[in-house]
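User: Study the chain.
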Amino acid sequence: MELRDRVTTALKQAMKDKDAARLSTLRLINAAIKDRDIAARGDGNDEGVGEGEVLQILGKMVKQRQESASTYEEAGRLDLAESERSEIEVIEEFLPRQLSEAEVDKAVSHAIEEVGASSIRDMGRVMGVLKGKYTGQMDFGAVGPRVKDRLSA
């Protein structure tokens, strides 16, 4: 089942269950996807965004909420931090399983081999391969420095 369809089905179920917190988060997901669809139509893409871009949207939403939760904790607003964490749980239901550290290392090695990367100049191509294959499965902000270390060694 396509990711959009899964979100829509979950949205309908949350309405039936009268689960207000879950429903709110699912509506935010839907709105973010529709916003990106509208932007894509403005660029001449009539079909809207694809699965990969939807995964990027969801990943970005999770990252934003993680940052907000840590900010709330620092400010002593544990109630708001908990709210952000519950939204993260709902969003992560639609993301693929996150890769372990060992799997990330293996993926980085394969991408470097695939591209034939030998210097830091090839980092963009390596990251492009990783983003193409593992969108939503790894934190590219954390993977970037790993790739850089491997290529500069």
User: Anything to note?
Assistant: The two ends are 43 Å apart (CA to CA). The chain has a mean pLDDT of 88. The domain at 101-152 is CATH 1.10.10.410 (Arc Repressor Mutant, subunit A). Residues 36 and 94 are 17 Å apart (CA to CA).
